[in-house]
Amino acid sequence: MSFNVAIDGPAGAGKSTVAKAVAAKRNFIYVDTGAMYRTMALYFLRKGVDKNDEAAVNKACMEVSISIAYENGAQQVFLNGENVSGLIRTEEVGNMASATSGYLFVREKLVELQKEMARKSDVVMDGRDIGTCVLPEADVKVYLTASSLVRARRRYRELTEKGITCDLKEIEQDILDRDHRDMHREHSPLVQAEDAVYLDSSDMTLDQVVDAIGRLIDQKIDGQAGGRP
Question: Which residues form the Cytidylate kinase domain (predicted)?
Fold first, then answer.
């Protein structure tokens, strides 16, 4: 029987970083669902697909094959056989992913792959609707968030460390715009699951967040009949 951890929350909340750390600490598989949507978005950008044209987006989906492999514990994402793991973290790709991830056909194509992975393995999965739609029966659910300014500062620091010139106010506005799209999209909007634990990381270190989620996992395991090692 697999053990599943779902971490949801808005853009820039640190979900991926936290999920990776939790998975590594517990020896679970980390499933970066955002990378899957970003990979799809990269294809749309390459093909010049209009993000507002749902019919064109759906058609392009049919041309896409996305697969995942793990190398030295790190998830590698492949688009039609090409490893694009290093190409999907730009602001342009992120904005396209946010704009198109709400389309039903896009979601259906990727959600089944995510569900299958969770059925077979102990996983930590992060995204926007993991606890509400993808893994509604997850053993532990967390809604991870932080203030928009804190999220913008984290993103600004990440980009500048890579030598990318950026503007803090523009990044924060992008985050607010993305929050609005994610929370108001027609299909699977961003919302805290009723049984998810709300965790605001604005004033927490990474280790503190990871430890907090670790305690939730331990509590769940201890409460299960027979327990788990």
Answer: 5-217
